[in-house]
Design brief:
This protein is of the alpha/beta class. The protein is built from 13 helices and twelve strands. The chain is 42% helix and 14% strand. The model has no long low-confidence stretch (mean pLDDT 96). Bound molecules: 4'-deoxy-4'-aminopyridoxal-5'-phosphate.
């Protein structure tokens, strides 16, 4: 089977599984316990935190472990809003945030916070002019993803950080799809808080972090003594150690940059090969700055489920848009925000490449998929005439 759904989740690296197994069997004590085994677990937690901080360009105290990006996003948004000055009663989100994050945004009105959404252009890039108009002195929080999970489009984090800083607003960045795919440095990114999830970079599911700039106040959403009172609950040591191992196997900035280059070349070969064989191919955001391994495309107006069915026959795992919303018959909200009409949006297929993707995978797809789709596209063209 060929796995082309790395934006949904990634296979854990062997070093990650190995590191976790040794924690499960040998380091199961509670890191808050005062006895010997507890102190041993506490030392392992400290070592993982130091390794995580090193890999992400932050201080160890700036790492708040969570159960993943969804929780990190909730902690950042609710926690930063609760700590904001009373006259700041507005929040600004991009209109193409992850589905769960948009749901969270829509609940904020109940707490008396009004929310505005920054629109995107037709190529999926953020409308910076609109962002500048929305981010004023009454804004408490701006929340922006670093890279979109469907289109792969990179968002202008540095520019929005400057806008937020000028307005005195906090900036939260959901870097779930960015970290591990492109070089990242917390100290340099300009955000007050950054969300990440380990399973997007060959780590385990159910663990992630909120990186929180030292000195930034945040109201905890889960009470307890762990994580310096910012997130209660017994630490998930196997997950935390697994996440550190996942970050280490990325190979630092050089390793990430080299892999990004390899994936961009494979992605381009895939898109160019498909376009040559099937002129009805359309790739969204092709000219925009985007993640190296993400390709969001449609074959004419062939419904996504038809294309996915043919991919399934070839043992290729891919998805239509985000994993959490696929299976539905609603067009992707991300494509809708880009102004894409429903019949085109319902044809959307996402191919996302990753560390396990090889040149052979791409060559196989290029040889096997066009013959399956070509008759369908010809048929569709004939009935349209
Ligand atoms: N944000 C983005 C941009 C994502 O792509 C995802 C995962 N699909 C999440 C948040 C949520 O991550 P998790 O399910 O690990 O909490």
């Amino acid at each position: 089977a060929i796995y082309l759904d790395h934006n949904a989740t990634t296979p854990p690296a062997p070093a990650v599984v190995e590191a976790m197994m040794s924690v499960f069997s040998g380091l199961w004590a509670n890191a808050s316990s005062q006895h010997g085994p507890g102190q041993e677990a506490k030392r392992a937690l400290g070592a993982a935190r130091a390794a995580t901080a090193r890999a992400l360009g932050c201080k160890p105290v700036e790492v708040v472990y969570t159960s993943g990006a969804t929780e990190s996003n909730h902690l950042a948004v609710r926690g930063l809003l609760a700590a904001a000055a009373p006259m700041r009663r507005r929040a600004v989100f991009s209109s193409v945030e992850h589905a769960g994050h948009l749901k969270l945004a829509r609940t904020l009105a109940e707490g008396g916070v009004s929310v505005d959404f920054i629109p995107v252009h037709g190529d999926g890039t953020l409308d910076l002019g609109a962002a500048a108009a929305l981010i004023g002195p009454d804004v408490a929080l701006v929340s922006l993803m670093a890279a979109n999970n469907e289109t792969g489009v990179l968002m202008p984090v540095a520019e929005v950080a400057a806008l937020a800083q000028a307005a005195g607003a906090r900036l939260h960045v959901d870097a779930t799809q960015f970290i591990g795919k492109l070089p990242f440095d917390f100290a340099a990114c300009g955000a007050d808080a950054v969300s990440l999830s380990a399973h997007k970079f060959q780590g385990p599911k159910g663990v992630g972090a909120l990186l929180l700039r030292q000195g930034v106040c945040l109201a905890p959403q889960t009470l307890g003594s762990q994580e310096r009172n910012r997130r209660g609950g017994t630490e998930n040591l196997p997950g935390i150690v697994g996440m550190a191992a996942a970050l280490e196997q990325l190979g630092g900035t050089a390793g990430v940059a080299a892999e990004a280059e390899r994936l961009a070349a494979l992605r381009d070969a895939l898109e160019q090969g498909l376009a040559r064989a099937l002129p009805a191919l359309h790739v969204w955001a092709q000219g925009a700055p985007r993640l190296p391994g993400t390709s969001y495309l449609r074959f004419g107006r062939l419904p996504a489920e038809v294309v996915l069915n043919r991919l399934e026959r070839l043992s290729v795992a891919a998805s239509s848009g985000a994993a959490c919303s696929s299976g539905g018959s609603e067009p992707s909200p991300v494509l809708t925000a880009m102004g894409v009409p429903p019949d085109e949006a319902l044809a959307a297929v996402r191919l996302s490449l990753g560390r396990t993707t090889t040149r052979e995978d791409v060559d196989y797809l290029l040889a096997a998929l066009p013959p399956l789709l070509e008759p369908l596209l010809r048929q569709a063209a004939e009935t349209a005439v």
